Amino acid sequence: MLLSASFPTRKVFGITTLDNLRLEQFLSCHLQTVTAADLLGDVFTIGGHSGETIVPVLHSWTHNLTEDEYKALVHRVQFGGDEVVKAKNGKGSATLSMATAAYRFVSNLLTAIVDGVVVDEVSFVNLYTLNGVDKLPSFITSEVDYFSLPLKLSKDGIDSVSFPHDINQLEFSMIDVALKKLKGDIAKGVNLVSGPKL
User: Fold this and answer.
1) In which domain of life is the source organism classified (predicted)?
2) How confident is the model over 97-124, as pLDDT tens digits?
3) Are 24 and 135 a contacting pair, CB within 8 Å?
């Protein structure tokens, strides 16, 4: 994708923190031996921010779940918003969850900017020109220009992005599904922005 020279790829984020919060909370509730705070940074989601584009990465925690429990957890993380809307009888969305996610992301951003500390985060970003993109799997970079990945935040924006080194086969399968859906979603977004406004 060709971008304007003024497009600040290091400073534009699609916040997927909500998906990470849900994963931490739901897994913590299931395990009952660790808090959601204990799982921060140890488990996270990559891919996108809707349904099957959300890919939970559990690292070693996968072994604490049966196959059915794993599938149920993945589904709950991917469709957690639907769960909230259903609980509210269709009369609202996950506003408190979104506020908490925004607070966490902005707090990390401010820590990076004000304190000059490099902070670990996960965000949906444009992969163009970012440090670390050359080390990402080509099956991602050849398919999409945007993807949610772990990244390092500094006062200047994104220092680098990375791909989890210990993705398991189930997670690879979910990434494949996510990429197919993301391609269509990204195309819709690009067409909306670049298309006629009337």
Assistant:
1) Eukaryota
2) 889 999 999 999 999 999 999 999 999 9
3) no
DSSP secondary structure of 65-101:
S-HHHHHHHHHHHHTHHHHHHHHTTTS---HHHHHHH
At 2, the pLDDT band (50, 70, 90 cuts) reads: very low
Q: Which CATH number does 10-191 carry?
A: 3.90.110.10
The CA distances from residue 191 to 52, 128, 144, 165, in Å, are 22, 18, 15, 34
Region at 171 (left for phi over 0; alpha for psi -120 to 50; beta for the rest)? alpha
Taking the C-alpha atoms of residue 127 and residue 123, their distance in angstroms, rounded to an integer, is 11
Q: How many CB atoms lie within 10 A of CB 123?
A: 23
* DSSP-based helix, strand, coil % in the chain, nearest 5: 55, 15, 30
**What global pTM score does this model have?**
0.90
Question: Residue 160's closest CA among 194, 189, 186, 122?
Answer: 122
For residues 39-49, give the mean pLDDT: 95
C-alpha 98/C-alpha 44 separation (Å) is 16
Catalytic (active-site) positions: 49
| Cα 114 from Cα 27, distance rounded (Å) | 32
